[in-house]
Amino acid sequence: MAILGQIRNRPWLLMGIIAVAMLAFVVNPDSLEKLFGAEPGVYGKVNGEEISKEDFDDQLFMLQQQAQQQGQPTKGLEEQAWQLLVQSKLIKQQFEKMGLTLTEDMFWNQLQFDPMFAQNKELFDEKGNFKVQEIKGQVEQMKGTNLEAYNNWLKTRKSIEYRMMARQLFANVTTGITASKKEAEEIMKQRDQLADIDFVKVDYAEYAKKNPVKVTTNDLADYIKKHPILFKREASRNLGLVYFPAAPSAQDDAATEADINKLFTEGNDLSGKESFQNTKNDSMFIALNSDLPFNPSYFSKDQLPMPIRDKVATASVGATFGPYKEQNFYVVSKLLDKKPSDSTLSRHILVSYKGNQAGGDATRTKEQAKKLADSIGAVVKADPSKFTEFLKYSSDPGSAAQGGSVGWTTPATPFVPEYLHFLATNGKGATSVVETQYGYHIINIEDKKSGAMTYKVANLVKAIKASDKTENEVYTKATKFIQQVQGKSFNDFANIAKKNNYNFSNPTEVGRFQGQLPGLGTDKDEEIIAWAFNKKREKGDTDIFTVDGTGDKVIAYVNGIQDAGTANPEAVREQIEPIVKNKLMAKQISDKINAAKATNLDQIAKQFGVAKQSAQVNMLNPQVNGAMEPKVAGAAFGVAKNKLSNPVEGMTGVYVVLKKSETTNKQPGDLKQMTEAIARQSSQQFGQALLKSLQDNAKIKDYRIEIYNKVSQ
Asked: What are the residue boundaries of the PpiC domain, all occurrences included (predicted)?
């Protein structure tokens, strides 16, 4: 709770502020330790500079923290962590190559401009001055009282430093970007010039109807060879996936409904004659019989399940609702209490102990922590004015810096239930010791305000699950399918799946560290990816996977193994086939036009059964009758008046152009304005392209797959 309170009061301090489990790494870190010794090894290199396991873990930890705070999934961030780490190394290298330095004074002076700080008004006084000394003091306090939080601040600081270096690097580079008078004059000329043209267009889509074009693998490969930078790829796998969900049957649904009805009206063998309807201990009954735990909190009307929202206001305490269905659950609800929502102003002192979630470098035992908390609680309860004297014992430096205050909270505030329960059941001035997963809190309620009506509801919940019979049927179906496709081609695999209306997907470029599989998204995804990247894996291999907790089955088929380098043509077919097909048609059309040796547009129009058209085109806005065609606009200004152009391979078809005239339509704006606008645009574009250029031209070595393959062996 204290740590969550610190998030609200100190959002700039991303680390050490919420308790998180150990990172769910792709492989067990202990396995790496055994394989490589105390130093697990190097994950990669950027222009010779090593990326260590510690570097990678820190970056991944940062992303997972941010995702958790934003309510986003914390899995599947490994590849993003790697890319950010590579970019950070490149920025630092270029920064130092230019002779730039980030000093300690510069760090603290520039801190107020970092997005993490600039958007937090609490970090600025009423005059707009940044409270840098206060932040320095809090960091120093962490260093002395909470080593874990301090170490996490150092990780956060590293990311901030990279952002500072990036801003300074881009600022220095883009400062030298200018636009010449001659360049501005040329742009203004292109902006103001118009060409009136007649043209014939052979549309690709219409041409293909009568002249089907098949794109071969070699055609795709030729295109990729001409654009190697665009198709530079990390190692990937082309997979076929067939998903067999163990969805509950109608019989399973009915059985669950009958089960909850019995618990509601009769009870079961464990409860004897006690049912949910007549129980005197709702929380205990739910603990013994419900698939979800009892929540003692009070909720607003809008936070309650939809089927009971409009009923609780007029219902009396003890009223029951249901059974009703919520997603994959059957629910019976009982109204236990109703009262106005209180906003509560409270403060606390957190006494942690060794081994708990907020323990940090604490050495005291749990027993010693309770003894200390009880003694502080007794003193504060007798004399609340002495509260601040004990803040030095608090393991929550964020609230301690605010006199222990966690601010105003409501039952909806994301604090631990025990803390919220104390606030909800006690009045202004109350003081007590409350135990949570973070330690012992000495809580003092400073003030309370009444608000909207809230409700305390007990929910008896039964999940609608697939029965053993249903799971066995799914298993039989999945094993029969894998037997059918064993040793077969990928086309057979796909066709058999589609013929039986199975859930089939074909992610063509699966990265080793992307975490989730497109079209699947199960807890088994990482295991399937690891299986596909095993060095012993071969094209055509298949296997069956069972999703934990659901009984769902996934059949995986390796359709392609792509090592790091240029993309496999078939893996990117969907992406580039339309482009390549248009190019093949463009060549056919152009060859036919050239072979006909036409002397006017009417002859070409007749040759392809199309109409001659007219348009007015401009170089800076190259639209031709609604289609963006920059090459056609270029041809219009490049061909001599009343002369036919060569066939032009456009975006939507092949054009032949005849220019009738050129005119000038002077637009508002002077030369100085245009020069400044070009410089600004060039500066922005260069800043965006610099990092990509650094990455495209860097020597980047990625050893992660090799490391994990060794571990799996």
From this structure: 341-447, 569-661
Q: Are 524 and 546 in contact (CB under 8 A)?
A: yes
Domain boundary among 436, 463, 490: 463
Q: Report angle CA 434, 437, 438 to the nearest 5 degrees.
A: 80
Shared domain for 368 and 278, answered yes or no, is no
Calpha distance 650→477 (Å, rounded): 51
Same domain, 332 and 348: no
Q: Give the structural domain span for 290.
A: 250-341+457-463
Which of 413, 439, 463 is where one domain is finished?
Answer: 463
Phi-psi region of 73 (alpha: psi -120 to 50; beta: other; left: phi over 0): beta
Buried b (16+ CB within 10 A) or exposed e, 298-313: bbbeeebbeebeeebe
User: Is the confidence at residue 271, as pLDDT, over 70?
Assistant: no
CA–CA separation, 611 and 19 (whole Å): 70
Q: Would you give the distance in Å from CA 527 to the centre of its chain?
A: 20
Q: Considering only CA atoms, which of 395, 405, 400 is closest in space to residue 439?
A: 395
> What secondary structure does DSSP assign to 4-33, as a single string?
HHHHHH-TT--SSSS--PPP--SS-HHHHH
Backbone angles phi, psi at 86, to 5 degrees: -60, -45
Distance, CA of 281 to CA of 284 (rounded, Å): 6
Q: Please, which residues have CB within 8 angstroms of residue 385's CB and are 6 or more apart in sequence? A: none
pTM: 0.57
DSSP 174-243: HHT----HHHHHHHHHHHHEEEEEEEEEEEHHHHHHHS--PPPHHHHHHHHHH-TTTTEE--EEEEEEEE
Rounded Cα distance between 533 and 521, Å, is 18
For the chain, the domain total comes to 6
Q: What are phi and psi of 507, to 5 degrees?
A: -70, 120
The C-alpha R_g of the chain, in whole angstroms, comes to 34
- The answer to whether position 324 is within a domain reads yes
What are the beta bridge partners of residue 15? none
- The mean pLDDT of 138-158, rounded to a whole number, is 83
Whether residues 24 and 56 share a domain: the answer is no
Same domain, residue pair 584 and 549:
no
Q: How many residues in the chain?
A: 713
Same-domain status, 47 and 165: yes
**pLDDT tens string 663-675:** 988 877 778 888 8
Map tokens 């179906």 to a residue: 477
Residue 27 lies in a domain: yes
Cα–Cα dist 329/252, whole Å: 12
Residue 695 inside a domain? The answer is no
Is the domain of 47 the same as that of 161? yes
Domain-located, residue 182: no
Q: Are residues 442 and 347 in the same domain?
A: yes
Cα angle 558-234-486, degrees, rounded to a multiple of 5:
5
DSSP annotation of 306 reads G
By CB atoms closer than 10 A (0-12, 13-18, 19+), residue 279 is: buried
Please list, residue by residue across 348-371, b when 16 or more beta carbons sit within 10 angstroms of its beta carbon and e when fewer do: bbbbbbeebebbbebebebeebbe
Q: Report pLDDT digits (tens) over 568-618.
A: 888 889 899 999 999 999 999 999 999 999 999 999 999 999 999 999 999
Does one domain contain both 392 and 274? no
Read off the CATH number of the domain in which 364 is found.
3.10.50.40
Q: Give, for 287, the enclosing helix (H) or strand (E).
A: helix 282-289
